[in-house]
From TrEMBL:
Taxonomy, superkingdom: Bacteria
Origin species: Flavobacterium aureirubrum
Pfam families to which the protein is assigned, alphabetical: Cupin_2 (PF07883)
Gene3D superfamilies given in the database record: Jelly Rolls
Ranges where the Cupin type-2 domain occurs: 35-93
Protein name: Cupin domain-containing protein
Length: 113
């Protein structure tokens, strides 16, 4: 049995410009919470697993290597299929959840813009 976790209580006291931590594991996956302020995460991909984003607060932009992007706002969700090169950009303060494999599967990509 796990303890009850309130996501609002969890995030409201975090003041760092970049915070990313596991909330709970579910079988071989985990739920992570990320809190960012005007932060760009490096280009990367996950070769063995999809990645699901759920935005709770703010504007999270996901950019793709082909120049396309998707803007996510509160209550938006988006799934990135495995192997897709992408990066996330927090526009202002954002809070998002990410459901992904518990196994580390991030490959960072040198990408000339």
């Amino acid at each position: 049995m796990t303890d009850k976790i309130n996501l609002v209580d969890l995030e409201k006291n975090i003041l760092e410009h970049h915070y990313n931590d596991k909330v709970v594991s579910v079988n071989d996956h985990c739920l992570r919470i990320a809190i960012n302020k005007n932060n760009t995460f490096p280009w990367h991909r996950h070769n063995r697993t999809d990645e699901l984003f759920i935005v709770l607060e703010g504007n999270l932009r996901i950019e793709f290597e082909n120049g396309e992007f998707v803007d996510l706002f509160p209550n938006d969700t988006y799934c990135i299929k495995s192997g897709i090169i992408h990066r996330t950009i927090a526009i202002g303060r954002t809070v998002n959840l990410c459901f992904e494999s518990d196994e580390e599967d991030t490959e960072y990509i040198e990408f000339n813009e």
